[in-house]
Automatic annotation (TrEMBL):
Transmembrane segments: 17-35
Gene source species: Nocardioides pini
Record domain Band: where: 74-254
UniProt entry keywords in alphabetical sequence: Coiled coil, Membrane, Transmembrane, Transmembrane helix
Top-rank taxon: Bacteria
UniProt xrefs under Pfam families: Band_7 (PF01145)
Protein name: SPFH domain-containing protein
InterPro entries: Band_7
Length: 308
């Protein structure tokens, strides 16, 4: 018959077995969690970069993931999505930043709303360099598959797009007065083109090396606005010019009317002269009186008999 000591010893060994099995199960579960593969699913306007980053692998670039794709990669690997479609950087009310202010050729401070459109260069090697140099530093990669950018994306654009845009607008504005920019649509269109032509070079200066991380720029600028006091003065000036032009037009119309009247009177005088030639002076006067309803043949006393 087993003694109490034997029973206790057996129970201890069984407990150790159970404990050991539990530890093994826990370790296996931990390994499964750690070893679980990673996945990425890109949208139709996204691409992604794949980096190895597991517990036993160095962090190293692996490959690019094209748009509208789903891939499964090693445990611990990282994926960074970036936009492959046109991006818009809006400046102005409800935009990505406040309006851009600048100074015109004649020293008037103005502000303008608008949109700077561009493409991120998603060539695989170029995008990898962008991520390593810029995107990873600002966490500028997309944080979802719905096409929305991250806070880091906007932070990055405030340096690499916003500052060059300010410089381009300020430089282009030195060629035009505020009245030209505010009132002349042809000048405004040329000013917009001047800004666009400067953007690639100014953006490139922000980047180390010769890589073109941003391409296909397009600029749309709204009508620039001067301060309210200047705008009021300009409106008053325009109203005064309009009134002066109206007076000039009225005076010109009066001159033309007077000239027309003179021509009418000249024609009438020529007509009278011709009638006098035909009827004689007395005949014309008699005919004139008749035409006016008068009787040119008034009675006289020369025909009366006055003698006894």
């Amino acid at each position: 018959m087993p003694t109490t000591t034997d029973i206790t010893s057996r129970a201890g060994r069984a407990g150790k077995v159970v404990l050991g099995a539990g530890v093994v199960v826990a370790v296996l579960l931990g390994v499964l969690v750690v070893a679980r593969p990673t996945t990425v699913s890109t949208g139709p306007d996204q691409v992604a970069l794949h980096y190895s980053d597991g517990a036993f692998t160095p962090r190293r670039f692996q490959d690019c993931v094209s748009s509208s794709s789903r891939t499964w990669d090693g445990p611990g690997d990282k994926h960074y999505a970036y936009p492959s479609s046109q991006r818009n950087y809006v400046f102005g009310e409800m935009g990505d930043r406040e309006p851009v202010t600048f100074v015109s050729k004649d020293g008037i401070e103005m502000s303008v709303d608008g949109v700077a459109a561009f493409l991120l260069n998603t060539d695989c090697e170029t995008l990898r360099k962008f991520h390593d140099l810029i995107g990873n530093r600002y966490a500028a990669y997309m944080d979802s598959a719905d096409g929305n950018g991250s806070a880091g994306w906007l932070s990055m654009l405030s340096v690499y797009i916003s500052r060059p845009l300010e410089t381009a607008i300020d430089r282009a504005s030195q060629n035009y007065t505020y009245t030209e920019l505010y009132t002349d649509p042809n000048v405004k269109a040329q000013w917009e083109q001047d800004v666009l032509e400067q953007m690639p070079d100014l953006v490139g200066r922000q980047i180390d090396g010769d890589e073109e991380f941003f391409t296909n720029f397009a600029i749309t600028l709204q009508k620039p606005v001067p301060p309210e006091s200047v705008k009021a003065a300009l409106v008053a000036q325009q109203e005064a010019v309009a009134r002066a032009k109206a007076k000039e037009a009225e005076a010109a119309a009066q001159v033309k009317a007077a000239q027309a009247q003179v021509e009418v009177e000249r024609a009438e005088a020529a007509k009278i002269a011709e009638r006098i030639k035909v009827l004689g002076r007395d005949g014309y006067l008699k005919q004139y009186a008749i035409d006016k309803g008068l009787n040119p043949y008034q009675p006289t006393t020369s025909g009366l008999i006055t003698g006894p």
